[in-house]
TrEMBL record:
Gene Ontology molecular-function annotations: hydrolase activity
GO biological processes: lipid catabolic process
Annotated protein name in UniProt: PNPLA domain-containing protein
Pfam families: Patatin (PF01734)
Nuclease is among the record's keywords: no
Superkingdom of the organism of origin: Bacteria
Keywords: Hydrolase, Lipid degradation, Lipid metabolism
SUPFAM superfamilies for this protein: FabD/lysophospholipase-like (SSF52151)
Species assigned in the record: candidate division WWE3 bacterium RIFCSPHIGHO2_01_FULL_48_15
Length: 348
């Protein structure tokens, strides 16, 4: 999208207005507007959206949002953003890009084989029970002080609806919500995760880009952080294999879940992308929608990428995408680049 069109977009204009005012949720001069931030996941590829959301802070946009929505790895990225821990991005670079997190089955990156082996691709229990507690611990006190609430989305097995979790009571409560949101069938777990009285899978099953949930929640403006470069789409064969195997697995839990999953994958995903593209180009709304993602031709990371140099390049492309969206001052851009330069050397 042309940079001049992006800079005049209603989402950018509202963000800059609130930045200038220094307002907080519940104290806005424009209470008729509800500005949401959506953070996409994508397994290890979500390092891109981690970089995009972290770039918002030195640009002065930390508190301009009324609510943040996250799904899967995107929800974890958002949690580290709310707790003001930019170092959380190192999870991708120095902690999970190895065989401790990604299983042998995960290296195969072929869903039918995972299904036959009955082995998930990753060890998410280790991530949420150990890494985010002991290795790069999520700062619960800082998270609880954030003026912008986080809503963690997950798909309910019982009623085949998206549930948005917030008002967390402890770090463990938050981590359990994040794990529920990241429980992608087969790839992360064969069983749903039990949380707050129900069983949950990744919300991407029913609301691929969180747009339906955010719009239903009253958002008039939405900034959507995305991981794939512009123009990247999975092949029809890849989508068909993933849909068929996932649907077969979900059928043992709830047929309504299967029906709504297939509807979301065949219809809603396309409709969401069309709605996003139209609002970006024509400034149509409300809701006004603006996506940030790496430009066409940028590196497109694999779901379970382990090469640190490639992951770091993915982070750089995410940061640059965010910079391109807002035309920052030289000082702001230098602060962003200085932070990402510190990531060049691994921390062990």
């Amino acid at each position: 999208m042309d940079s001049d069109i992006r800079l005049s977009h209603p989402v950018v204009e509202l963000m800059k207005k609130r930045r200038a005012e220094g307002s907080l949720p519940g104290q806005r001069s424009d209470p008729q507007n509800r500005l949401g931030l959506i953070v996409e996941g994508g397994a290890v590829r979500a390092i891109v959206t981690a970089a995009e959301i972290l770039t918002l802070d030195p640009l002065g946009f930390r508190n301009v949002f009324d609510v943040i929505y996250g799904s899967s790895a995107g929800a974890s990225n958002a949690a580290y953003f709310c707790s003001n821990q930019p170092g959380g991005l190192r999870i991708y670079l120095d902690v999970v890009n190895n065989r401790r997190f990604i299983t042998i089955a995960g290296y195969l990156q072929v869903e039918p084989i995972l299904f036959l082996l009955r082995r998930p691709a990753v060890d998410i229990a280790w991530l949420f029970n150990h890494v985010m507690v002991n290795v790069l611990p999520l700062d619960w006190e800082a998270f609880a002080r954030s003026p912008v609430p986080l809503k963690v989305l997950a798909a309910s097995v019982e009623d085949a609806e998206i549930h948005a979790f917030d008002r967390f009571e402890s770090r463990q409560d938050l981590l359990h919500a994040l794990r529920a949101s990241a429980t992608l069938p087969i790839l992360a777990s064969f069983d749903p995760f039990y949380y707050r009285g129900g069983h949950y899978f990744d919300s991407g099953l029913l609301d691929p880009y969180c747009l339906r949930t955010a719009i239903a929640d009253g958002c008039t403006h939405l900034l959507v952080l995305r991981a794939h470069p512009r123009g990247i789409k999975p092949t029809e064969l890849e989508k068909r294999i993933a849909r068929d195997i996932t649907a077969r697995h979900l059928s043992q839990f709830n047929w309504d879940l299967v029906t709504r999953f297939l509807s979301a994958q065949f219809n809603e995903e396309y409709n969401c992308l069309e709605k996003l593209a139209e609002s970006e180009a024509n400034h149509s709304g409300p809701p006004f929608l603006l996506g940030i993602q790496p430009k066409a031709g940028s590196i497109d990371l694999a779901d379970w990428e382990c090469n640190r140099d490639k992951l770091l390049l993915g982070a750089w492309t995410g940061a640059q995408a965010a910079l391109d969206a807002f035309s920052p001052s030289q000082d702001e851009a230098d602060r962003v680049r200085a932070f990402f330069a510190t990531l060049d050397q691994p921390v062990r």
